[in-house]
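To fix ideas, we now present one chain and its tokenised fold:
***
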Amino acid sequence: MKNFKLVLLVIGFIIISQSGVLAQTQNVWKSLSEVSYKISEDQFGELYVPVFSANITKLEGKVVEADGYIIPFEGMFKPEHIILSSLPLAECFFCGSGGPETVMEVMLSSPIKYTSNRVKVRGKLTLNSKDPEKLMYILKDATLVN
């Protein structure tokens, strides 16, 4: 009976530890949509500054996965620095109806080839509410998953 309890304890520990890993690497778009904005002003006019929810701030610095479409920016494709959109090109933040919470900058550790197919990346999430020249979500040290 003692061994049975020990086995159950070990199995329970494995399940709990695995669920923590899955929670950190699950697709994050749903959580990232929990952002609101406050209006601030600078020398150029009004800025919409993101206010991240508690769920989003918990993800900062964690390794997460995001799938989506590569969006070429500034008229070109940069194989180590991409913009990933949760929505297809015609609906993305830059070209259609999506909001700024549907895109993220991705800094890849190795260059990738452009594709119009959906891709999945994994990296460390950084939140940006200070630099208006960058997107509010940045994935660093990212790798292509599929």
Observations:
- The chain has one domain: 2-144.
- Confidence is low (pLDDT under 50) at residues 4-24.
- Residues 43 and 112 are 38 Å apart (CA to CA).
